[in-house]
Amino acid sequence: MPARPQIDPSYQQGVREARGALVKGFNWVLGDNQLAMPMLVSDLQLSIRSQVRKHELNTKAFRMLRALQNTYLRRPASLTNPGSLCLRRECRSYELGWILWSFGQRADLAQLTHNPIFMDGTSKSAAPTVVTLASTAKV
Asked: Does residue 1 have a pLDDT over 60?
């Protein structure tokens, strides 16, 4: 059986920041991201791979150059203008598999695992509920 992502054992061991990272990552998938779009299309039972700068959709060269410049110039990480982003319309099985593996058997994060986007009969237009850290139980 494959190993769970590193964040899950951290959460299970009570690492304080792990729960917040899980919630933040899951909420990103549910639509709390720069494009304010869910990355799941429940009617089609797929996940959208990522968001990408429009000019980097078909090449890695610009991303690699930017990474090298940022490293050399010691620029802090920052978000780009949402208007310069688009969806990378790919679905990779391991991404949806990671969600299922990490959360499929869990009972302790029902506010995430039982989000309306996962329920039968939810349409594409239904907006998912984004969970705040305040609404989650403490580790």
From this structure: no
Beta bridge partners of 85: 53
Q: Helix, strand, or coil here: 119?
A: coil
**Of 6 and 35, the one with more pLDDT:** 35
Residue boundaries of the structural domains of the chain: 1-49+89-139, 51-88
For residues 4-43, one letter each, b for 16 or more C-beta atoms within 10 angstroms of the residue's C-beta and e for the rest, the string is eeebbebbeeeeeebbeebbebbbebbbbbeeeebbbebe
Pair 47, 77: CB distance under 8 Å:
no
DSSP secondary structure letter of residue 102: H
Q: What are 26-82's pLDDT values in tens digits?
A: 889 889 999 999 888 877 777 888 899 998 888 889 889 989 999 999 998 888 899
Residue 6: enclosing H or E segment and its boundaries?
none
Could you identify the residue written with the tokens 């990779």? 92
Beta-bridge mates of residue 86: 52
Q: How is residue 7 annotated by DSSP?
A: H
In the numeric block, which tokens belong to residue 45?
Answer: 């039972």
| Number of alpha carbons in the 13 Å side-chain half-sphere of residue 57 | 10
